Amino acid sequence: MTDAPEGGQRLSFDDLAARLAAILERHGCSPKVARLIGGNCAAAERDGAHSHGLFRMKGYVATLKAGSWVDGKAEPVVEDAGPAFVRVDAMNGFTVPALAAARELAMEKVRENGVAVLAIRNSHHLGALSLDVEPFAEEGLVALSFINSMKSVAPFGGHSAVFGTNPIAFASPRAGGLPLVFDMATSVMAHGDVQLAAREGRTLPEGVGVDRDGRATTDPAAIVDGGALLPFGGHKGAALALMVEILCAALVGGKLSAEVDLSQSGGATTPHTGQSFILIDPDRGRGTLPGFASRVETLLQLVAEAGQERLPGDRRHAARETSLREGIFVPAATLKLLGELAA
Ligand code: NDP
Ligand code: PYC
Fold first, then answer.
1. Domain boundaries, the chain
2. Hey, which residues are catalytic here?
3. The CATH number of domain 188-226 is 3.30.60.50
4. Which of 68, 226, 248, 333 is a Cys-bridge partner for 274, taking CB atoms 3.0 to 4.6 Å apart?
5. How is residue 155 annotated by DSSP?
6. pLDDT, tens digit, for every residue of 302-331?
7. Does domain 76-186+231-311 fall into CATH 3.30.1370.60?
8. Are 298 and 25 in contact (CB under 8 A)?
9. pTM
10. In angstroms, what is the span from residue 233 Cα to ligand 1's centroid?
């Protein structure tokens, strides 16, 4: 651990993850779940995904304290649903341990069939979705994942929330370097970023959301307090948000975002929803076709030559490299909060 100039400290990944795991275990997670969620939260911070890193620790603790809203000791049940289909009942626990429990069977199915679908239900997710897909691409697979959450996004032309911020993440192997990863909410902004803006007293750009009366607002508090975010890209983002609801509620057998009522959660902040994955082995049956990873590289080269300054995922990979080299910067106020949560 080293001092950082801005009045915080730089912690190694292992140190931060262990501190977070200790907090989560103290508030009711099993050691296994605490280790997985602590690692996930530290990894989001390491990658500069601040809206789903340390900022979420207070919410995790409030959620664990809220009694039966989430089971921090849940043992997920993995179901072999078909030749290329795995279902998981997270047993009202977190999604990250459910994914960990199902991973081996899902990989087995991809090896056998070239593709697999993984559908997780009865689960809670507060993380950055990039962390869920990138490890599959590191093993040579193309991975897509989707999560719904709690109602906070209006449909196209609508005035009140129906969808969650419903992120989509994609990861692909490439011939040169780390996987290509994108990870984006289907709302103009993630709810976590709106909460951060509200906490820091910042106004938002036009077009992010509406207040509880359906009027356009730049006040983040008015959006999170009964208002709604807007889907990105108008009707196109709204269609993707709709698709995510179908893949994460209807397909997995879970709740629609509109059916999650956090006002009844006793202070919990994790939406009780679903997550789905589509995993593809791009090398299956390729024969003499040109190599997948080199075709991806050709495309990325064209994108760069056409003037796109960086690829999605580059910022997170650069943040990761800095964090691993210099330590993960934790501001003084956050260190204080972590100390309070651990006490
Ligand atoms: P951003 O809008 O910040 O980024 C979306 C994607 O676009 C990222 O892959 C990003 O790469 C890329 N990108 C951003 N700027 C550029 C650029 N100039 N050129 C090329 N690519 C670019 O993300 P969101 O605010 O939509 O989402 C933030 C996080 O919130 C995500 O991790 C998401 O999973 C999480 N989230 C989680 C939810 C949950 O239920 N658990 C719900 C909603 C969101 P890069 O990351 O490298 O900047
Ligand atoms: O930031 O939009 C968000 C979010 C919703 C649920 C978890 N994160």
1. 1-65+313-343, 76-186+231-311, 188-226
2. 51-52, 193
3. yes
4. 248
5. P
6. 999 999 999 999 999 999 999 999 999 999
7. yes
8. no
9. 0.96
10. 15
